[in-house]
Amino acid sequence: MDELIMLPGPTAIPPEGLEAQSRQMIGHREEAFSKLLVRVTENLKKVFFTENDLLIFPASGTGGLEIAIVNSFSPGDKVLSVTNGVFGQRFREIAKAYGVNVIELDFPWGEPCDYDKIENFLGKYQDIKAVLFTHNETSTGVQNDLQRMGEIIKEHDALLIVDAVSSLGGLPLYTDKWGVDMVITSSQKALMTPPGLALVAVSPQAWRQIEQSTLPKFYWDLLKAKKYYEESRQTPYTPAVSLLYALDQALKLILKEGIENVFKRHRVLTRALRRGMEKLGIKPFVPWEIASYTVSSFYQPEGIDFKDFKDHLVKKYKLHFAGGQGRLKDKIFRIGHMGYVNQEMILKTVESIGSTLEDFNFKADKVSALAETEKIISEELSRNEL
Ligand SMILES: Cc1ncc(COP(=O)(O)O)c(C=O)c1O
Q1: Where in the chain is the domain with CATH 3.90.1150.10?
Q2: CA–CA gap between residue 2 and residue 40 (Å, rounded)
Q3: Architecture field, domain 15-256
Q4: Which atom of ligand 1 is found nearest the CA of 64?
Q5: Per residue in 56-84, pLDDT tens?
Q6: 166 lines ligand 1 (CB under 6 A)
Q7: Is the whole-model pTM more than 0.90?
Q8: I need a surface site. Which of 24, 132, 343, 386 has the fewest CB within 10 A?
Q9: Gap from CA of 23 to ligand 1 centroid (Å)
């Protein structure tokens, strides 16, 4: 039996991507590479729903966040950092590490942001240069309301800079329509590619601010990357060629399925997984109204040592998932279901968790859990509407 990768990242890679990344190298100053880079960039723009510039760097998601910070600001610039989990905090820490003047607005982990409060803050501090926002808080499984955030920012001069690491390609994110100035994501989540690529979309308004930025940068210089792309369809330094091969394949798969169908698949599979787990007696950590469609969080089962539970699932059922992070470490666990994920994987996950509960002598109605899970998937995925 294959390993069942249900991590919140890195996620499973489709066979096409696995095959592609083992291909022979090409020269990155040759035409074949430029063609690949242009194709990947143009297809990414479709998935980002943007006509803005899109640049690709060799880095993980955190590197992408650092790219956004060092290019957008100068020391002492004021930014509003909105957080409700680990990754919002990380984005903020990067800004602080570079001497940006961060105004902190925190909401409880596992709860939605209070958008009226965000609006009030923006009204109160007129000189805010940008809002740092996390679209999908992977640490809690909360999907933040980026569309609403986009509406709020329209009334202000500030940029909207968004960590979309665990959302882009899985959750609806309409960059241009929603007025997002910078969207940062990475390859290893819903984009079904191994870790190692950071992708950054930049609006014209963001470029204007980037041109003023004096924070130190060399490898992460967005203006330099833009110049290389525009003038020669190349990257300034040696690109991660194999990852681009794999991403090229992944994007083809996404566009073939249709991006709106991809969103629907994520939403339906999430609902089905949550229902199945509830039937097993495992409670979701957040309500459906704010639930992420790429990672689901659940309370750790009571009466079982969580480490034993997790180790058992890995060893006996080859199911790989994640525990809680930060202050939620001993409280929740997280199942990733983004990118290369299908009905069988969700059913297998529910079945393996049900069997594990039984192995630990807990009652678990595996049969009805599986029936409910399957019912939601077959009814909702076959419906015509998106
Ligand atoms: C929302 C979010 N932001 C940032 C990161 C950091 O990305 P990386 O681990 O690729 O540096 C992650 C990783 O899980 C994430 O989920």
Answers
A1: 258-382
A2: 29
A3: 3-Layer(aba) Sandwich (3.40)
A4: 11
A5: 999 999 999 999 999 999 999 999 999 99
A6: yes
A7: yes
A8: 24
A9: 27
